[in-house]
Design a protein that fits this description.
about 250 residues; alpha/beta; Beta-carbonic Anhydrase, Chain A; about 10% strand; binds zinc ion
Length: about 250
């Protein structure tokens, strides 16, 4: 009887260990490996913040995104506060969700979104809050291919409040028109994408011209400002500096 009991106990014990191990390994898989904290932000350089986004986009385009426990991240960040290392200003296009295409979790990035990723004083205020108050290290102005707002600006669409928004993209339209000897084809997708990229470079200039606070942080290398273009079809995000020179992943450079 005692022997039978011992065998049963042993079987239960082994089953429990096997079950626990599988639960632990599953839990490990589902729990986010990382949330942004005051300490992580302090340890992060602008270059590191950029490489984090490049790595996240690589995971996205290779369908290897981190399987985060977002509920857990929401609870943790509600207690510890938010310390995003990057701010991403991008278009409202429904295919360009920055947290998804850059594979970031809750509390990892500030996302500012507006049609045509245009900038005025309200966006600059958000950038100043992120960089000067919170300590965010990286500003990304991200445009994308197949942008409806850019297409509208190219066609000089006039419609309600859109008119004044599209006007903000006109400097980029003019720049590309000049490059193409006044023969601008707004039905050509490559032309629209060229304007979108030019628009990003123009908005980057507006950040430093319109915000002395942010310019000072950039000049002192406390904050980095980069541009980016998301390819809507592939999901690939290409990052570049204010001269339009592409920035590559660290292991490739
Ligand atoms: Zn767009």
């Amino acid at each position: 009887m005692l022997k039978l009991f011992s065998i049963r106990s042993l079987t239960i014990l082994i089953s429990t260990i096997i079950l626990s191990t599988s639960v632990i390994s599953e839990t490990k898989y589902y729990v986010a490996p990382y949330i942004s904290t005051a300490k992580s932000l302090k340890m992060t350089t602008p270059e590191m913040a950029l490489q984090k986004l490049i790595a996240g986009n690589m995971r996205f385009i290779n369908n290897k995104v981190i399987n985060r426990n977002l509920t857990n991240q929401a609870i943790k960040t509600s207690v510890k506060g938010q310390f995003p290392s990057a701010l991403v200003l991008s278009c409202m296009d429904s295919r360009g969700i920055p947290e998804l295409i850059l594979d970031q979790g809750i509390g990892d990035i500030f996302a500012v979104r507006l049609a045509g990723n245009v900038i005025d004083s309200d966006q600059l205020a958000g950038i100043e809050y992120a960089t000067k108050v919170v300590g965010t290290k990286l500003i990304v102005i991200m445009g994308h291919t197949q942008c409806g707002a850019v297409s509208g600006a190219c066609q000089n669409v006039k419609l309600g409040n859109l008119t004044q928004l599209l006007d903000k993209i006109q400097p980029a339209v003019t720049a590309i028109r000049n490059q193409q000897d006044d023969k601008l084809d707004c039905a050509d997708s490559e032309t629209i994408d060229l304007i979108a990229r030019e628009n990003v470079l123009h908005m980057m200039k507006l950040v430093t011209e319109g915000s002395p606070i942010t310019k000072d942080l950039i000049d002192n290398k406390k904050v980095m400002l980069v541009g980016a273009m998301q390819n809507i079809k592939s999901g690939k995000v290409t990052f570049f500096d204010s001269d339009g020179k592409e920035i590559e992943a660290e292991h490739q450079s």
